[in-house]
Structures are given as structure tokens and as C-alpha cells.
User: What shape does this take?
Amino acid sequence: MEYFAKAMAELLGCRSCYVAMISSSGLEEVRIGDAPTDPSCTTMVERIARTGTPEDIASLEPINSRTWFVRKLIGAEPPVKSHSVIGRFASDERATVVFVAGWRPTALAAAEIPGLAHTVRPLWNAAHSLARQTPGHVDAQLWLEELTFPAIVADQSLHIYAVNRGGRVLLAKRQLLRMDGGRLAGSCGSVTESLREAVGKVLIESGTHGSFNTTVPLSMDRQQFAFAKIGVVPTHDKLGQALIVVPQFDDVQGAHCIASAFRLNWAEERIVTRILQFQCPRDIGAELRLTEATVRTYTKRIMLKLGINRQSEFFLLYHLTQSPFGAGRRENSMSRLVSDLRLDEEGSMRLRRVGKHSPD
Assistant: This one.
């Protein structure tokens, strides 16, 4: 998609280009130029994709530069009078592609449209072929959408370049993070400044091989504790951009993963779920109709099975059993975690290499 965006921008004489591919798996986007990501345009892009029929030949037409979503997709119009172009076509991958390019110094002439429209699909096919042949090429947006956690790509000034599905939902809530003039902002000025400093540190120290070793608290509220992990975007052509991931806490899923990895029974899994909800033994007992003493006995038995000594380590196990990717990769992560367990001399299960382990 990025190769196609660059080719269309050059063909049409534009400095910016937005490309969206809409398929049964959802919406995928890529931008080149100065355009920030704006999740408010998603509905309009999907509406454009639904016009016409899949058998239509590629459509290409000038579009009013004052249209609000054009400016949000490709950036603000330059001071000098400029023009933009919108296109739509059905790809061979059973998806619909919508693109918006600008800003052209001159309007697209009616005589130019038929010839340019017939070049769109060949350019798309050539871009796909080039992407497959490029060693080590990673489509940043496709990779981003595989992440189950909200993820945002931004530079040191917090200018947003890409957002995945979860990130768009997070920004729309405007609680932990929000978008302010195309830039990422926290819930307060100190969080925003911490994000900016952390991104700068990662980009300076890690180069192109950075890991997610920088953490920024987004909220210290016990009911909504949240943090962001920051690292370098794992592509060779995204220098100067950082990947910001906001892990989401799911106590039910976390307890299920722990129970599966350590073969806990259903009753023990229910106890773990409530421990991950910060409930004390008395409250757990009241909810499950058990005595407080029974809950404490269960908890000690569970901790012995897990090979941990403190209840805070339940949360460490929670993070170790979670993969940032989809279900298939989560299963691979679980398999590796279980293989990293060994039976010590006293017969209790303990994690080894915890300090070296990182999710897939």
C-alpha cells in the first residue's frame, strides 16, 4: 500500500497520498506526506468504498479541496491554490481500494482522466509485486493491525502517522490519550511531556533495533491504571518514528491463560480472576460463597502450583501469558511459556529465565 501511495503521488504530481483498503477483515490505511491520522474519517472512507459495484473499472475524479475529509486525510491545503484527486477500484484481493492524493498545482483535466484511470490497477499490481520481492519488507500498517493492543506510530514531536483499530477506539474515548491537532496528547500536560521525552529517548538510544524498554504511566488511578510501552517501529523505512503500545488489562482472559498454562481447575481459575480484580480474600469469599479461610487456603495452593511467593506475582504471570498479537500467536506464546517451566527439587513449579522472556 505504501509503494502504491508513493507511485500515485508521483503520477498525479502530488505531495501527499492516502490509501485505504477495505475488505472482509476490516479497514487498512497508509499515508505518505504530511497528513496526520484522523479516525473521524473512517466512516466516510467506508461509504465511498461502497459506492458503485465491484466490477466497476477504476474511477478517478477531481474533488473539492474544501471538503472537510480531504484535508483530514492528506493534510491542510497549501497557501497557494491547489487541487486534489480521489479514486476507487476493486483489487484482485477481493477488496476495495480508495485513495486521495493532493495537492496538485493544477486541476486534473477531463481529457487526462481516462488514461490515468487505466494506470491505477497496473500500479497497484506492480506495488504488490515489488513489496513481495523486497527483502525484509514489512508493511507497517498491516503489522500494526495484527496487534491486539491499541498502537500508535508517532515521531518525537508526537505527530501521528498511523493508528490501528484499537488505537482509534482509545483516541475516540479521549480519556487516557487523545489527538490534538494531529498530535498525540495525554490526559494532562505532564503525561504528554513524558511521552515526548520517552519517544525521543527511544529514537536516540535504540536506532533501528530498539526494544520496548521504555514505559510511560498514563494513569495511576487504581480503577484505571494504564501505561504505554514505547519502542522503534520494526520497519527499515520508518526512521524517526516510534511505536507506542497501550497494553489492555483483561482479568478474565488473564486468569484463563494462567489456568491453561498451569493446569488450574475451574474453582482455582475463579480465585485467580478475582485476585486480578484486586479483590481481598474476604470479598472473594463473599462473592463465591466461601469462607475467608477457604479462599486463603485456595490461594496458597494456587501459589504453590505457580511457584510464586507473593500475590503481586500473579500480575507478572498475567503479562507473561499474554501475547500482543492475535489468538494464533498467543497460542505460540503460551507454548513457549509452558516449555520454560521446570520442576525444582522440592516438586514445585517455578518460572525460569523470567528476566529474559518477552512476548512474541
Remarks:
- Residues 113-133 form the longest helix (21 residues).
- The chain has a mean pLDDT of 76.
- The two ends are 25 Å apart (CA to CA).
